[in-house]
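Subject: two folds for Thursday's group meeting

Dear M.,

Sorry for the delay on this. The cluster queue was jammed most of the week, so I only got both jobs back this morning. I'm pasting them in the order they finished. Each block is the input sequence followed by the predicted structure tokens. Could you check whether the formatting survives your parser before we put anything on slides? The first protein is the one we discussed after the seminar.
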Amino acid sequence: MLPVETDPDAASLPLHCVAAAELPGFLQRRPPDQSAFLTASGFAAKAGELRLLPGDGGLAGAVLGLGAGTEADESPWPYGGLAFGLPEDSLWHLQDAGLQAAVALGWCLGAYRFSRYRKSARRPARLQLKGESQAALATARAIWRVRDLINTPAADLGPEELAEAVAGLGRAHGAEVEIIEGAALADGFPAIAAVGQGSYRPPRVALLRWGRVGDPLVALCGKGVVFDTGGLDLKSAEGMRRMKKDMGGAATLIGLAELIMTQGLPMRLLLAVGCVENAISDRAFHPSDVIRTRAGITVEIGNTDAEGRLVLADLLRYASEQEPAWLIDAATLTGTARQALGPDLPALFANDDRLAETLLAAGLQVADPLWRMPLHDGYASWLDSSVADINNVASRPMAGAVVAALFLRKFVPEHIRWGHLDLYAWNDSARPGRPEGGEAQAMRALHAGLEKLLSSEKGPAVVSKPAPRHTK
């Protein structure tokens, strides 16, 4: 439950947010005892610096430093430490109502704890809402959902459970949901079937459709590999340690879909999630196998640990068949993207400059940054195969994220405006607003970017083609 209070009459304490440049004026306006206390304690309004203010009754309020105030206006991170930085279960209201959306989001994100298996030892402080904050709260709820999905171990989140997460979301919002499995999956999504054939938990494709006929169609495709052993090209123990998060791309787009539907964006939504486990058994696909894809393109398996691109290949082709105005996929796809950009910057590849520039600008605006990487045609030949149309890995050990994006591009027709996000979906260590564990990277950037795209252009009204029918 989000740590907020909607009763405007509940007794609460004031929270002041002060930038360093505004500190002298703020001190002059405070009661002398509070001003003297802040000065004596060395309060300098540094970013994240928090002081409790004394009063006759004990606690009279608190003040949070914002530093130079150079972060984006909509950034939640300056406020991410408040939920557990203020006294347990205390109730607070903002003195500056103009900051409420950012504070509410940061407060809620910082209060998140994964509590499925262990309850939090401490209750967070609560924020009293006295203005319009529904968008911030909807965003926080979506991010909590994403984090919960990523943090859940594979034993409790298999392909069926991930598909059910999509179905449950669809039911909550009156969307059409279709779960494809068995023979229908093998026929319509053969690459996904090949990746999942080694697991005792069969793969599925979860499709969610929502929106009004005539609005532009936005298609979202998520890699939902619930656990990645690497297959027969087995990962090391260290390489497998966090592989429950290999469905982070799917989780992020599930959260984005929730936010789109909650806020009623003027669009038609297609969410396609490939729910699959890359496991080891006598049924697992092999290095050097040649598999077919929905697009009719044959793929030589150079490495079974490059399975995420196979999952996305079928999803991207299916989504492209619906002729979307924009097509976006998200995946925890390559380690080389992390080597190039580190854990905090998702790599963005796009075949459309306007799409890329809009998403990049939106990411900066909401402090959820992306970094564009090139679809360099000169590396396309590295995926050549002597026995199939294409190999799933490069012939050279370089530019892995670029080559993976080039592989995906083969399954997207040139006229489709497409963006690919290679993200980490994880916080290696705790920071204000970002607890260690699963993270909804790029979700807010995508939402803000889609809002901008939808406000400036109405895409073609196309009736979606049906997928192979196998509805649960």
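Second protein, same layout:
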Amino acid sequence: MSQIAFQKPDARDFLDIDGLLDDEDRMLRDTVRAFVGKEIAPNIAEWWEEGIMPVELAKVMGDMGLLGMHLEGYGCAGTSATAYGLACLELEAGDSGIRSFVSVQGSLAMFPIWKFGSDEQKLEYLPRMASGELIGCFGLTEADSGSDPSSMKTNARRDGNDWILNGSKMWITNGNLADVAIVWARTDEGIRGFIVPTDSKGFTANEVKHKVSLRASVTSELVFDDIRLPGDAVLPEVSSMRGPLSCLNEARFGIAFGAAGASRACYEAALDYAMERVQFDKPIASFQLTQQKLVEMMIATQRAYLVAVHLGRRKDAGELSPQQVSFGKMDNVRNALEVARLARGLLGGNGITLEYPVIRHMTNLESVYTYEGTNEIHTLIMGEALTGIGSFV
């Protein structure tokens, strides 16, 4: 009986998950990877240290078709959900803040207009947001209502044909960069979404300073002081928490992929370092404990990639549930954070410098672990799916 010649597994894709992708997926993935390698990787440590996200990147990524790329029409690329996820993976392999910008623009600011807006609103905003001409942000979280957004205090009341908006939002990505904010507010008609130009009288954005996480991302507090909005500023097709929660579901899907990218970046940095770093006259990759760490990082990274691709295929088939998105967001982020911590330890003192990407990813992931649904919230979402018993109250 002839022996089968097995190919040695690739250390960077041990399970050959790339083989599950079609040619179009791989081509798009490779395009984004090349962009990150050329434009993001050489500069991101400096941007992170300075606490900036260059606004000119918006038009660059718009020209590439990355903004609202999974939406149909209105200048959007109309890619598959899997392709969008792979783009998120590559962007977050560069930095979580860069992926967050794209995620907020497409899934949190453009998606609600695309899903719940009028034809006039779609034509007015989506093409310019897809091109990067207009930057958007998403106002849901408040200082006193994070995991329980339905307890929001921001409110809007009718005044003739207009609306008067009051309140504030906190931890808003892109807030000081945005030209338009999608703001969710309590009204007599339920929770409504409003398209709020940021140059409106009574609108203030206060940038959050002194962050030690997601530093290459602009985070803001938004304040609304008797902002008068025309009647057509409201999104007409939703008047409940279904609106903002559906947007979060879109963004969480991208995070499941993005976390796999951050995990991969940390694992590959550790692998390269272990092969090159010599101690006791041999590379530290030859030591058993180092190999154990590398194997654990590889397994966690490949598992996250598999989960993400599977969720992408289910979303493309119209079969992905919010509870399954919670599985991906929760498990991929916590595993990526553990990979980052292992990689940080393996790099020793070099692991705390920005010459390597690991400490940057590790601190970024602390925010990703919390935002768009804490680990506890996603646990309870899945717990209810398992038991049929809600445990939020």
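Two things I noticed about the second structure. The chain has three domains: 17-130, 136-233, 242-387. The first helix runs from residue 23 to 40.

Cheers,
T.
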